Amino acid sequence: MCGFCGFLTPSPDRGMEAAVRRMNDTIAHRGPDGDGVWVDEAAGIALAHRRLAIVDLSPLGRQPMESADGRWVVAYNGEIYNYQDLRAELEAAGHRFRGHSDTEVLIEGVARWGVEATARRLVGIFAMALWDRRERALHLVRDQMGVKPLYWARFGDTVLFGSQPKALRAHPAFRAEIDRDALTAYFRFAYVPAPHTIYAGVHKLEPGSILTIRPDAEPVRTAYWSLEGAVRAGLSDRLDLPDEEAADRLEALLMDAVGRQMVADVPLGAFLSGGVDSSTVVALMQAQSSRPVRTFTIGFRETGYDESADARAVATHLGTDHTELTVEPADALAVIPTLADWYDEPFADSSQVPTFLVSQLTRRSVTVALSGDGGDELFAGYRRYLLGARLWRGMGRVPAGLRAAAAGLIQAVPPGRWDALLGRLPGMRMAGDKAHKLAGILGSADADTLYRTLASQWHHPEALVLGGREPHGLPWDARAAALVPDFTERMQYLDTATYLPDDILAKVDRASMAVALEARVPLLDHRVVEFAWRLPLHQKLRDGQGKHLLRRVLYRHVPRDLIERPKMGFAVPIADWLRGPLRPWAEDLLDERRLREDGLLDAATVRRAWAEHLSGRRNRQHQLWAVLMFQAWKARWGKAPAVTEPAASAA
Length: 651
Prior knowledge:
By secondary structure, the chain is of the alpha+beta class. Helices cover 44% and strands 14% of the residues. The strands form three sheets. A six-stranded antiparallel β-sheet has the order 2-3-1-9-8-10. Strand 11 and strand 12 (220-223) form a beta hairpin. The radius of gyration is 25 Å and the shape is globular.
């Protein structure tokens, strides 16, 4: 895994190399093993690359890399897992390679087959910039599932691009203007949804896309693969197989995906939580390894947040070389003020804290780690898939007007009053908070509104962001219901298209890259994704439990009783920390005068939520964490128009 950046300008000058080096310096943490720059002043193109050497550690794997015929230049971040197959195909056609890197296979594939045809052949995780010297065209390409990030912008006549926004900021053409509409969307979801970013005029390239940019022409985006297409194809060609036969096919596919991702010229391991997804990945790794796989787990002392014993039991059964670290509260708290350095957009999934900590632990021993991300979305593992369908089946029988009236009555009673009325009953701690959440659900006009309610942090973000108008993307698009009529499967589709790349994968990328660790995600091999969408829902959800078929595969390697337990999630006790050790930090960021002077957020709304949380009347941790992460981001990135020095590595 690496990082890259660059720019294209019709007004080249002799300062191009210095400018792209400044951009590249900001992402040094993504590639500590070397850097490279390629500049063509006459064409106005500059490319730069930071290298984390994984395959072919020799200088023959360095980037930017030119094709043998001199036409193409590439700067690329990621891994091509089928590069050996493509190499054999190119060798059979007469090509002779200089080295053994996947980068060389990639660039020679483009030289022979073209950009789109090559992208369609790739199995991997990647983002890249390809410069066509003959056509004077820049092609930006992102992998099918959006595992690797790619940002781009046009300011005036200059196009900027790179692995993270901080690289774009370092160019003098960059304009750091906060997009209030994107900020509004952020407060609903706790991340900025693609193609938006926090900056006006800066975009995320969508997964499965090629963006072609030529001087004096508008950029053209082409989809070489799409989740929508995979879903449509899967739903129209359902598999009708007994469970065991379907599990055989899934296991073979996963075994191939995991095996391909175990190829590396550096030490390799895996994250292990003890849950279904990571345990499946580790089990299939160990089945293909002649020595114990290195596995890594962190635990917390706080009750209800520690899964380390479960991970240890799975590791013992599989015989892995297991490393476990119990994180003290001080360790986690020390990370929080640094998060804005690595998440250079506002980002408020609090599991970013343990993700960073487990990445930091893992990097002490290995350079590559496989994770189980993607299993929940593909195989229906989230609680909301079960809860949402049940809620809607019940609510759908009640007229919308009656539900809305009931919601209004519940909301008319303040949370504190509900606490006084119901708080002494068993299981009714914070009764007012629960009552108002129920009111929000009851007020849902249709199933898709219910999904947005379940997925939202701030349910009315336009009331929070001054002058912000929330952009309505895929979760509001009626075509999603037409494509995926079943509500549970539609939630899976929406999560896979939005939450997965913009939250889960962004979280893992920033946390792992902060410590120069390559994180691979075999469950998101696009071939696995296509297969999963051919499975009928009953082979995912059954008897009130998700991931049915994935569990059948896992139980061939790990006893059921080591896995069967309530889903815990990868969380930290933010609610308690905000009332305790994090309170001074939070008070500073939520200072009313500071909020009013910024002129971005409604200070009264924020302060009311803070007071409710401190009093214990309502648990507002998720809403407040979103505000705090934005405030911390703004303090770090909101003043200077550019970054001239990279943050120190946390490895």
